[in-house]
Amino acid sequence: MAMQQHADLTSLNTFGIAAKADRLARFDTVDGLRELLSTPAVSQAPVLILGGGSNVLFTQDFRGTVLLNELPGIAVVQEDADQVWVKAGAGVVWHDLVLQCVAQGWGGLENLSLIPGKVGAAPMQNIGAYGVEIKDTFSSLEALRIADGALVTFDKEACGFGYRESYFKRAGKDRFVILSVTFRLNKDPVLNTSYGNIQQELDRMGITAPTIRNVSNAVIAIRRSKLPDPAVVGNAGSFFKNPVVPQEIADRIKVEHPDLVSYPAGTGHAKLAAGWLIERAGLKGLSRGTHGVHDRQALVLVNRGGATGQELFDLSEHVLRTVRERFGVELEREVNIL
Description:
The chain is α+β, with helices and mostly antiparallel strands. 27% of the residues lie in helices and 27% in strands. The chain has 3 domains: 4-69, Uridine Diphospho-n-acetylenolpyruvylglucosamine Reductase, domain 2 (2-Layer Sandwich), CATH 3.30.43; 74-186, 2-Layer Sandwich (Uridine Diphospho-n-acetylenolpyruvylglucosamine Reductase, domain 3), CATH 3.30.465; 234-337, Uridine Diphospho-n-acetylenolpyruvylglucosamine Reductase, domain 1. It is built from 10 helices and 19 strands. The longest helix has 19 residues, at 309-327. The two termini are 25 Å apart. The mean pLDDT is 93.
């Protein structure tokens, strides 16, 4: 397999951060991945599996090998009268999968339209948006165990899904390469339009009997209106998780700020909108020249051109500290820091 030395990673991360890797190679077959992992130069140094590079911040060069996951394919592997099981290669662009499922009338992924990245990252992050998470439609995934090259199938329970969490971000980190993911979708979709501004967008579009295509289009319109295009302004989407706090903390903040945005999060807890906290802390639109906090969505940090990963990390530290001092709430980064 072709191995590039001293590889430039600038175009391979959506922040557009200038960083290099000692080595870079691509794989689009399982055998190709096994061959790469058995190469002495790869096996004896750190390895980073990279998909779309949409959830990573390079604060330094990567001293090891970056392997680009380009495993292809979208196929129906099972179906019955009500549901269809769709298997997608980990290297498939996530939005392409969503659009193909929407075109077929298979419901379940439409609220996740336009999320950047590739299929392999979806279960790692348990990606979610507008009231839907991957775990809601997840059936199983196949992964390669790096230690011995064995193929392992994970069901939902084994993945340990949580809010932007999974087994692959904790105990299983750096132990597996996700090869494919299978989703169970509905032929008679049940629409979820109650979260965020989806219903308002459908009303604006004059749609009274929405389909999954309408919901997908509404989500796309909302995301484009709020979030910067990484092709234009470097970013990784939402940089911070929405914090889950004891209800008494939410109640305390609400006394001073009745418009606090929060959602139920299990008995005695509430999920707060991190974007609201950052904005009310006075940080929305904060500029540090080459980088800053986005002026339309405070959850997003942006590289306007020429920023280093360390500068963006330092900005995130400033956001964490300011929100902590203002509200007594600890935010957590959603983006992987390298």
